[in-house]
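User: Please fill in residues for this 203-position structure.
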C-alpha cells in the first residue's frame, strides 16, 4: 500500500489552495497519509527560507498575484490578506496531531476535512485558528471530539517539535510538502498532479 508523509503548515495559503486534492489522490491509489503539521517559521529559518515580512517587495507582490491566480484555478475563495495572519499555528496543529492519534485508536472523524477546515477558517473565513473556540468548532465540524483541543496538548507539543526535526532531516523546506515511499518529494499544491502521476507509475 503506498504511503504519503504530508508536511504542512495550518497558516499556509498554498496549502489551503490544495483543497482536499491530496485525499482524493490517496483514495484513488489506496494510499495512506500521515499528517505532519510543522512550524513554518522555524522550518524557513532552518532551511534557508525567508519570512514573508523580510522578503523583497517584488516577491511579496508576486505572492499576492499568485495567490489570486491559484485561487481562481482551484475554485476556492481566499482573502490574500486575512484578518488573523500571521497567527499562532500551534493550537490547530496540536489538534490535528491529537485527532490523528485518536483516529489510530478507532475514533471517528475526517483528518483531511480537519486540516482543510483550519486552513479554510484562516484564509476564507477570517477566523483566528489560535482561538480555543475556533479549534473546538473545526474539530467538531470534522467529526472529532472537540475536547481533543485540551486532551492532546502534551502529545501535540512533543510531536510538533519532532515533526520539525523530521522535516529538516528529510529535505522539507516549504508547505505543502509531500514525500512518498522511495523518498520522492513534491513541494507545493501545484505539484499534486505530479504526485498523482508518480503514484500511477507514469512519472
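Assistant: Residues filled in for all 203 positions:
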Amino acid at each position: 500500500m503506498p504511503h504519503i508523509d504530508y508536511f504542512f503548515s495550518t497558516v499556509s495559503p498554498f496549502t489551503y489552495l490544495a483543497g482536499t486534492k491530496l485525499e482524493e489522490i490517496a483514495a484513488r491509489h489506496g494510499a495512506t497519509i500521515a499528517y505532519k503539521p510543522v512550524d513554518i517559521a522555524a522550518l524557513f529559518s532552518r532551511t534557508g527560507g525567508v519570512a514573508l515580512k523580510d522578503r523583497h517587495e517584488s516577491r511579496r507582490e508576486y505572492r499576492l498575484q499568485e495567490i489570486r491566480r491559484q485561487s481562481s484555478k482551484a475554485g476556492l475563495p481566499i482573502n490574500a490578506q486575512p484578518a488573523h495572519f500571521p497567527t499562532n499555528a500551534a493550537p490547530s496543529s496540536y489538534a490535528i496531531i491529537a485527532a490523528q492519534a485518536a483516529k489510530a485508536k478507532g475514533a471517528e472523524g475526517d483528518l483531511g476535512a480537519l486540516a482543510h477546515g483550519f486552513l479554510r477558517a484562516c484564509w476564507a473565513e477570517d477566523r483566528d485558528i489560535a482561538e480555543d473556540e475556533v479549534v473546538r468548532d473545526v474539530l467538531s465540524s470534522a467529526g472529532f471530539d472537540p475536547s481533543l483541543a485540551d486532551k492532546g496538548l502534551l502529545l501535540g507539543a512533543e510531536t510538533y517539535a519532532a515533526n520539525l526535526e523530521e522535516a529538516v532531516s528529510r529535505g522539507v523546506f516549504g508547505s505543502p510538502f509531500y514525500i512518498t515511499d522511495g523518498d520522492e518529494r513534491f513541494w507545493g499544491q501545484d505539484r499534486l498532479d505530479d504526485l498523482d502521476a508518480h503514484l500511477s507509475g507514469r512519472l
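For context: The chain has a mean pLDDT of 97.
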